[in-house]
Amino acid sequence: VIHECLDFVLSPLKKAAEVGIMMSDPLGSLRYVFTPLAAYIADTQEALALSGVAGKTSHLTLASYKQFGDPFRHQPRTASKTLFQLRLLEYITNPWNVSTYMKEAMKFRLNGAHRVFWRDWPLSDPSVFFTPEPLHHWHRMFWDHDAQWCINAVGSAEIDFRFSILFPRTGFRQFPEGISKLKQVTGREHRNIQRYIIAVIADAVPKEFVTAIRALMDFRYLAQAPEISEDMCTTIDQALQEFHNHKDSIIAAGARLGKKRRVIDNWYIPKLELLQSVSSSIRNSGAPIQWTADHTERCHITHVKDPSRSGNSRDNEPQICRHLDRAEK
Fold it and tell me: From CA 254, how far away is CA 214, in angstroms rounded?
């Protein structure tokens, strides 16, 4: 359904990308321009759905979930390859025979969407236009993985104590109750915890463990720069490689835990695999910080929560729509 909707809504842009269109620039001069799909901001699950790829598979490369922890970038999942597989599937079986088509699609690690919205958009390639998204791919990954590894390695009581006694500093958030029991953590909290985490765990875990966490932090901070040179791209890749060189220390410390507190001895982490494509995306599409979802996530507050609070908690959706309509007028 989402592909059909996007296909309909974006059809004018596809046409403009094919034949061009006259548009005015900021100075009012008319320009003959084309509209290729340069970037699409999406979290991991949305990107999988839009690229036509099934779960446990990278939407940027040909890596499967068992290869997510590899210390190198796999071959990109190009548009031509995906479209070829879709044409082959359509030749093998009828797309409208859903059960059979889905079964055959899984053999190619596709999700069964046979008319992806970008199929007829000139020059579009999911391995290029799906850019890194700092809020979900980096900061959320930090909380879901890095921070949990640190909590498990140091101990929740100890790490909470260490955070609680940090000296107050202007501009830095305090965590008087620690971090292990935080709920509904936002991107702002992710960033605040990142400021402290290396110093907090420094003498409580093995040196290699600290090196691995610090390497990921270096990667994130470097990749968030507003301007990134070729030398910095090399440094970013080196930071990621340093993590891979020391990542076994995290498992050795018993810090990577799953359900029932059992140690996980693999690296089947989709967002870890996505980090391998950051430097190539920077070269293609520029600094990733411009593609962050911070602004769109903020709209959840300004366009949903605030209007909802101003109502009487009855018929929320119509009231929110009416509120937004009046605000625009």
Answer: 18
Query: What one-letter code names the amino acid at 62?
Result: L
Interatomic CA distance for residues 156 and 150, integer angstroms: 9
Answer whether 111's CB lies under 8 Å from 96's CB. no
- Pairing mode of beta strands 21-24, 30-33: antiparallel
CB atoms within 10 A of CB 136: 23
Distances (CA, A) of 51 to 80, 156, 190, 315: 12, 39, 28, 35
Question: What six digits make up the tokens of 65?
Answer: 């979930």
Question: In which band, very low, low, confident or very high, does the pLDDT at 312 lie, cut at 50, 70 and 90?
Answer: confident
- pLDDT at residue 311 above 90? no
Q: Is 90 exceeded by the pLDDT of residue 295? A: no
From CA 89, how far away is CA 21, in angstroms rounded? 35
Lowest-confidence segment of 138-142, 291-295, 312-316 by average pLDDT:
312-316
Is the separation of the CB atoms in 225 and 132 below 8 Å? Answer: no
What secondary structure letter does DSSP report for 95?
T
Cβ atoms of 226 and 234 within 8 Å: the answer is no
What mean pLDDT is reported for the chain? Answer: 94
Residue 301 has pLDDT above 90, yes or no: no
Q: What crossing angle do the helices spanning 2-9 and 11-19 adopt, rounded to 10°?
A: 50
Phi, psi of 263 (to 5 degrees): -70, 130
Q: Which letter, b or e, does each residue of 270-288 get, where b requires 16 or more Cβ atoms within 10 Å of its Cβ?
A: bbbbbbbbbbbbbeebbbb
**How many alpha carbons fall within 13 Å on the CB side of residue 25?**
6
